[in-house]
Amino acid sequence: MDPALRGDATGAQNPSKPPCVKAISVSGQQHGLVVLGEHDEVLRPAKLWCDTESAAEAEELSAKFGWKLVPSFTITKLLWLKRNEPETYAATRCVLLPHDYVNWWLTGRKVMELGDASGTGVLDVEGRRWDTAAMDAVDARVRELFPPLVASPDQAIGTLRPEVAAQLGLPAGVVVGPGSGDNAMSALGAGAAVDGATVVSQGTSGTIFASSSTAILDPTGLICPFCDATGNYLPLLCTLNCTRVLEEVREAFGLDHERLTELAEADAAGPGCGGVTWLPYLIGERTPCWPHASGALLGLRPGCMRPGLLYRAAIEGATLSLLSGFRRMTAAGLRPGAQLRLVGGGAKNRLWKQVVADAFGMEVVLPAEPDSAALGAALQAAAVLQGTTVSDYVAQHPPPMLDQVIKPNPEHRAAYDEALVRFESLGKQLFAQHTK
Ligand SMILES: Nc1ncnc2c1ncn2[C@@H]1O[C@H](COP(=O)(O)OP(=O)(O)O)[C@@H](O)[C@H]1O
Ligand SMILES: O=P(O)(O)OC[C@H](O)CO
């Protein structure tokens, strides 16, 4: 980022002076359903991206739309609301996504930006307009509920409302960019939106995405048909259970990630975990679309309940879940290149980075800023302020990468290949028959 846009107005880092904020962009969780009433009041707590309660509605709409919608998509949640909370649905006057809601609060404008709107399930991604036929298939009212789409990813949607500026202690006139979903923002902050790198994000969700100049419309629903935050596309795979699985071990044993990592590294069970498989579907799953699945630990032998072994099993389970989807993405035509770019909270873990390199059989590199979604939002805000396109701005200010390149260890490959076969086979045996 330009030094002039960082720290105080001169670019100098001066802790005694408050930062001189000139522009803001918001990065938010995708898919969430925020419903507003007649007086713009929030009618109920937002249904979040990871909520799988609308599984039946997702099945129904998939059949109507002709492509596989997973329960994450907002429109499935809206149909769920209509069925399960008809009074709230009847009172709803506007539907927003979480980041659009924050944008509205900041600026007073109710709009949706294309990257995030792609996660609603009613965007014509190629045409970059609302799919009114899909909306009508749900309910005649739906057209009225969604706000207009923003025209450009490169232009401000407004400025801070004076009362909000006062509340935040910010000067009047702060410009607000369109923002986007966290994955599209992460693609900016990891540089991938402009250089085409494949990103693996290890956050609460696990995602894999790469920029594309054409829309990828996958009727199986494995690859989500998202727009990015530059005017391009962002085909994306998402798993619901990633860092949460490791958190289970951390909470069960009361140890921190560093200590558990040391124990896992020292544990006798190396790659493949001595046959222990953790199917990580704690909150159900969307890739594969098994919303009713649960977590399962299999292959336990006497003495297996060691924190180090279980932590490794959690790392491997979350990784194999992503790898399984990635293999299907490459089979469907994705050409990922030789390197993966790792971001998100889990990318701080040295053992996990190596497991990803070994299991995927690819080199791993890391942006210097692991919170790439936040950096992406800052880059968008800077671009909007300067009046340049977001892609030009990121190309001119590429996010720096760490020097370290994590190479796959060929000696571990066979163990992970076997573990993946076991992982996929056990998952199918347990869940494919019982969940739609
Ligand atoms: N050293 C670590 N090893 C494994 N996981 C970690 C480590 N440090 C942080 N995390 C995980 O990263 C998560 C936060 O990642 P982040 O990408 O910020 O999440 P979110 O997707 O919710 O935005 C935390 O919930 C934590 O479980
Ligand atoms: O909590 P996160 O950052 O993993 O976000 C969830 C994503 O927005 C799901 O698409």
UniProtKB/TrEMBL annotation:
Annotated metabolic or biological route of this protein: Polyol metabolism; glycerol degradation via glycerol kinase pathway; sn-glycerol 3-phosphate from glycerol: step 1/1
Broad EC category: transferase
PROSITE patterns recorded: FGGY_KINASES_1
Domain named Carbohydrate kinase FGGY C-terminal: residues: 200-383
This protein's record includes keyword Kinase: yes
Coiled coil: none
SUPFAM superfamilies the UniProt entry points to: Actin-like ATPase domain
UniProt keyword list: ATP-binding, Carbohydrate metabolism, Kinase, Nucleotide-binding, Transferase, Xylose metabolism
Limits of the Carbohydrate kinase FGGY N-terminal domain: 20-189
Family, similarity comment: Belongs to the FGGY kinase family.
Name the UniProt record assigns to this protein: glycerol kinase
